[in-house]
Amino acid sequence: MKLYYSPGACSLSPHIALLEAGLPYDLVKVDLRAKKLENGDDFLKVNPKGQVPALALDSGELVTEGPIIVQMIADKAAGKNLAPARDSNERYKLLEWLNYITTELHKNLGPMFSPVLADDAKAFFKDRAMGKFKYLETQLGDRDYLMGKQFTVADGYLFTMLLWAKERLGFDLSGLPNLMAYKARVAARPQVQEALKKEGLLKAA
Fold first, then answer.
1. Beta bridge partners of 55
2. Can you tell me the distance from the alpha carbon of 186 to that of 201, in angstroms, rounded to the nearest whole number?
3. Containing H/E element for 127?
4. Strand partners, 3
5. Model-level pTM?
6. 10-residue block means of pLDDT along the chain (205 residues)?
7. Of 90, 172, 188, 195, which sees the most CB atoms within 10 A?
């Protein structure tokens, strides 16, 4: 498999999932602005969406959209328990978390990276995202991970969003102790450390 990624982008989530799953893969770096691969090839010929993550399977098929990719990875390494069994109530709870992260966090944080977005618009998105983080603070409570004691692919995704918020966008999350303890807990996982190292992000965590 090949994971098309950009350092620190949302592709960090499936990168973490691949390492946690112990599956063999190759990393292919993408310049998202130029839509070029490191060798100069046109990324749009690989993924017409022009976005990462994209996962090229050994069959030649390309899978896109992070929440789908991480579930596929989890299902390919079922013994690692990165996702509950398909059709179980717990699996639907995982889907709920993945959907919440992608629509309520990812889609509010993403626009804040735009250099042309007005400050008042950024403030609007920041306020919305902070409300979502406050909800997560109450839901985490004393849980180790989103689903309880077991790390799942949803945790790699939420961790990526926390990196965006705190380290790249300057959110003050100090008033959310459960969330900050959670972020540190996920960051300390060896596979997460490895993903950060491979993407040159260790200092960012």
1. 3, 63
2. 14
3. helix 119-140
4. 27, 55
5. 0.96
6. 97 98 98 96 98 97 98 97 97 98 97 95 97 98 96 98 97 97 98 97 74
7. 195
